[in-house]
TrEMBL record:
Molecular-function GO terms, alphabetical: ABC-type transporter activity
Organism: Micromonospora mirobrigensis
Membrane topology: Multi-pass membrane protein
Major subcellular site: membrane
Protein location: Cell membrane; Membrane
Protein name (record): Transport permease protein
Keywords: Antibiotic resistance, Cell membrane, Membrane, Transmembrane, Transmembrane helix, Transport
Pfam families, per the entry: ABC2_membrane (PF01061)
GO cellular component: ATP-binding cassette (ABC) transporter complex
Keyword Membrane: yes
One annotated GO biological process: response to antibiotic
Xref: InterPro entries: ABC2_TM, ABC2_TM_bact-type, ABC_2_transport, Nod_factor_ABC_transporter
Transmembrane residue ranges: 27-47, 59-81, 102-130, 136-158, 226-248
Boundaries of every ABC transmembrane type-2 domain copy: 25-251
Amino acid sequence: MNRHFLGDTAALLGRSLRHIGRSPDTIVTTAIMPIAFMLLFVYVFGGAIETGADSYVNYLLPGILLITIASGISYTAYRLFLDIQGGIFERFQSMPIARSAVLWAHVLTSLVANLVSLVVVVGVALLIGFRTGMNVLGWLAVAGILVLFTLALTWLAVIPGLTATSVDGASAFSYPLILLPFVSSAFVPTGSMPGPVRAFAEHQPVTAIVDAIRHLFTRQPVGADLWVALAWCAGILVVAYLLAAVAYRRRIS
């Protein structure tokens, strides 16, 4: 059964990746907005923002990476919605394939596409001055956090992809996720925010994740931020996966 599931998932993943390969504009579009934000803040607002960091792009990049992921997962909901509306799901259900393979193929496609977009964004950051003395283990730790965060948001994207009644509804859920880093430590230290805003910023998942990645980039002790970030990612992943599984069963029943 496991071999059957893995084979079906791999075949469907190949199908989805071929679609993206024929439309590379998806990845380009996903990366353009975060890169535009990064350039805007570094070259327009960066000189007026006091962060205590040697370079504002070093301070900014972790938040930009999370915005890249939030922007990219909207395409997961979009592609899933189109497959449902186009009758692809019903066709797959009539074939001898593992039912969960369909969803996992979309999730893994999102993971691959987002990783490519993240590499593009990091490449641009390096061109405009981002520097880090991290070793290989540090990069692996950052990659692990980003992969876990991507999986958590992707399973969250599966829910509107299965339940939305329009294309706009399927992808609109990502807008609050894109805006969430702006009310966190991603762009400015939370200490500069008014009381209620600061309280929200310091206790939402983006701040813990951004701070953990930033400390890894600057080779500072990560402390509790890493465990809080992992707890947020794992918690969102588990809840989103369970809700997506329920929505999927209702959709195909």
